[in-house]
Write a structure and sequence with these properties.
By secondary structure, this protein is α+β, with helices and mostly antiparallel strands. The chain folds into two domains: 319 residues, 2-Layer Sandwich (BirA Bifunctional Protein, domain 2), CATH 3.30.930.10; 82 residues, 3-Layer(aba) Sandwich (Rossmann fold). The protein is built from 14 helices and 16 strands. The protein has an eight-stranded mixed sheet. A five-stranded mixed sheet has the order 13-12-14-15-16, with helices on both faces. The protein is elongated. The protein starts with 14 loop residues before the first helix and ends in an 8-residue tail after the last strand.
């Protein structure tokens, strides 16, 4: 039997159930914040990704030709599909649009910890809001979702504005903006000497390299953050131009709103966060692990030009994407990964197989009232059935056929404490 392809994973029970439970909690959190679900295809025209990312996207896309010899691709990300759908509906869609998507994506990348070639991505996107109120809502919703899946206290957000990074590059004489952005993006990923070498290669003068390194290091305050007002004032005083100062103003407003939203304990300004080279237009952010490694968990930001790029009207937009692999690593590392599917409420046990038809009837009655229930279908002994109930993490066992039970009654056993009581058979399936 051929094994699963490299970079692809099987998820058998209880792992598949645990992943389903995580997605259920994420969906519930998004809906509680007013986001509604959008479902997109898993195969799209390759042109869709060329429009957003250019020719370079081909290197990591599962690209092939269909029977009509059209270039198509397995979806490497959800946002281009979202943009295509929004453009089709732009004239009738009331603003703001708050959509979330949950779906598989595929990228032909080198597999490693936290990265597979097939993965599930959870996206939140908010369109039609030009101010940082959108980013506030996104980050607040993401924080609630992270808490709901069990990551309380394990993460925080690094936040910046690309206009600030661009202004810093101009201030320090970077002659190659794209290379400067790549260098800044690698600040936490390479040794200091290598980082400084990349700044020089981007055109930063040697005397400016040390100043820049000190500037970035001064922002590494973690939580609580550096004195934001003082840091931004110092940054502005170094000679930032008007565009960069507008980025500073946006950031000040954003941090004010985040504090009012109750996120002051988990946001920090980090000027080295720049994200993609051409995709984001101003605010950018990423969630990171608060453990010693500080690894990035997911990211997002504002992308105000994407809808126009796809032929739609000028539409402000912001979003984020949470990948399942990095989230799994975070939760498993902290011992907070779910055990599997939610526990079964009731397991119906019979003293002998002659009671099985009655057990099946009870199970169906319970299920119709919304109670999760099951029973033995293999004519096992009563002790084996009770072991199965415990394995299924059932809250209780309902035992049918015990001679000591009163007429018209069954025995209910609390599987956590072992306590037993008689209850009327007729009362078993009454709604709570």
């Amino acid at each position: 039997m051929p094994p699963a392809l490299r970079g692809f994973r099987d998820y058998a029970p209880p792992e598949a159930g645990a992943r389903s439970e995580i997605r259920r909690r994420m969906r519930a959190g998004a809906r509680r914040a007013g986001f509604v679900e959008l479902e997109v295809p898993c195969v799209e025209s390759f042109e869709l990704y060329q429009t957003k990312s250019g020719e370079g996207i081909a290197a990591e896309t599962w690209l092939f030709h269909d029977k009509g010899d059209r270039p198509v691709a397995l979806v490497p990300e959800q946002t281009p599909s979202l943009a295509r759908i929004f453009v089709e509906r732009a004239k009738s869609e009331p603003m703001p649009v708050k959509w979330f998507t949950v779906g598989k994506s595929w990228r032909y990348e080198e597999p490693q910890a936290g990265r597979t070639r097939e993965f599930v991505q959870f996206n939140l996107d908010l369109l039609g809001v030009p101010g940082v109120e959108a980013e506030t809502d996104l980050l607040a919703t993401a924080a609630q979702i992270m808490d709901d899946v069990g990551a309380q206290g394990l993460y925080a957000f690094r936040v910046s504005d690309r206009a600030i990074a661009e202004g810093i590059g101009r201030r320090f004489g970077a002659k190659n903006p794209a290379r400067f952005f790549r260098a800044v993006d690698r600040y936490r990923k390479v040794p200091p000497a290598e980082f400084e070498g990349e700044l020089v290669a981007a055109g930063v003068a040697p005397d400016g390299v040390r100043e820049l390194s000190d500037l970035f290091a001064a922002a590494e305050g973690g939580i609580p953050p550096v004195d934001l007002a003082e840091y931004l004032r110092d940054l502005t005083d170094r000679g930032l131009d008007e565009a960069a100062r507008q980025g500073v103003s946006r950031l000040e407003r954003l941090f004010e709103l985040l504090a009012r939203a109750g996120l002051g304990d988990r946001v920090v300004f980090d000027p080295t966060v720049v994200r993609g080279l051409a995709y984001y237009t101003s605010t950018v952010f990423e969630a990171y692990s608060r453990s010693g490694d500080g690894r990035s968990i997911f990211g997002g930001g504002r992308y105000d030009h994407l809808i126009e790029l796809f032929g739609g009207p000028a539409t402000p937009a912001a979003g984020l994407a949470i990948g399942d692999q990095t989230l799994e690593l975070l939760l498993k590392g902290a011992g907070r990964w779910p055990e599997g599917e939610p526990p079964l409420d009731t397991y119906v046990v019979v003293v002998d197989p002659s009671w099985t038809p009655e057990a099946i009837q009870v199970v169906q009655e319970l299920r119709r009232t919304g109670v999760s229930a099951d029973c033995d279908l293999l004519a096992r002994s009563m002790s084996r059935q009770l072991k199965e109930a415990a394995r299924r993490r059932s809250r209780r066992a309902v035992i049918l056929g015990l001679q000591e039970a009163s007429p018209g009654a069954v025995v209910e056993r609390d599987l956590a404490t072992g306590a037993q009581r008689e209850i009327a058979r007729a009362a078993l399936a009454r709604p709570a």
